[in-house]
Amino acid sequence: MRGKYLDKQIQCSNCHYAISRPEEKKTDVNISVRMIADCVLDATDTIVLVSADSDLVPPLEFIQKQYPEKRIKVYFPPSNFSCDLKDNLTHHSSKPVLMCKNERRFRDAIMPDVVTDGTKRYEVPEKWRPANIVR
């Protein structure tokens, strides 16, 4: 379930010069379906959404009404904010977290590449390891 980009033509109303700009499609729908499916299948106790896309308010409202026991956490990426998402969370006695004001908290939450439970060893696959994250 991946989104995709389509080229959208934008034309200047004065000079009629046109440019092509990529426009993201389906990502918000895919996120919505996955959040609701996780609740329906009881595969989660907490929804964690990293987005400032107000198109995600309706699925959050559905989850809040139909699955009130599920916790919802929303993190706004740097330079992004949504009053609609914030208002929804405030109405449900919660608030979004601004990632740019909590960078240290997120860096401290990065798990090590290798974790053991005393008997088994679990390792993050090499292809999943971002080259630019300092651990």
How do the strands and helices of this protein lay out in sequence?
Layout: E1 4-11, E2 18-25, H1 27-40, E3 46-50, H2 57-66, E4 71-76, H3 83-91, E5 97-98, H4 103-108, E6 114-116, E7 121-123
Parallel strand pairs: 3-4, 4-5
Antiparallel strand pairs: 1-2, 6-7
Structural features, described:
With 135 residues, the protein is α/β, with parallel strands linked by helices. It has four helices and seven strands. It has helices spanning 27-40, 57-66, 83-91, 103-108, and strands at residues 4-11, 18-25, 46-50, 71-76, 97-98, 114-116, 121-123. The strands form three sheets. Strands 3-4-5 form a three-stranded parallel sheet, with no helix packed on it. Strand 6 and strand 7 (121-123) form a beta hairpin. Helix 1 (27-40) runs parallel beside helix 2. It is extended, with a radius of gyration of 19 Å. The chain starts with a strand and ends in a 12-residue tail after the last strand. The model has no long low-confidence stretch (mean pLDDT 88).
> Which secondary-structure class do the elements indicate?
alpha/beta
Instruction: Give the integer mean of the pLDDT values.
Output: 88
Strands across the major sheet, in which order?
Answer: 3-4-5
How far apart, in Å, are the first and last alpha carbons? 30 Å
Shape: extended
How are helices and strands ordered from N to C?
Answer: EEHEHEHEHEE
The profile of the biggest β sheet is: 3 strands, parallel
> What's the β-strand tally?
7
- Count of individual helical segments: 4
What percent strand? 25-35%
Radius of gyration over C-alpha positions, nearest whole angstrom: 19 Å
Query: Which spans of ≥5 residues are poorly predicted at pLDDT below 50?
Result: none
Q: How helical, in percent, are the residues?
A: 25-40%
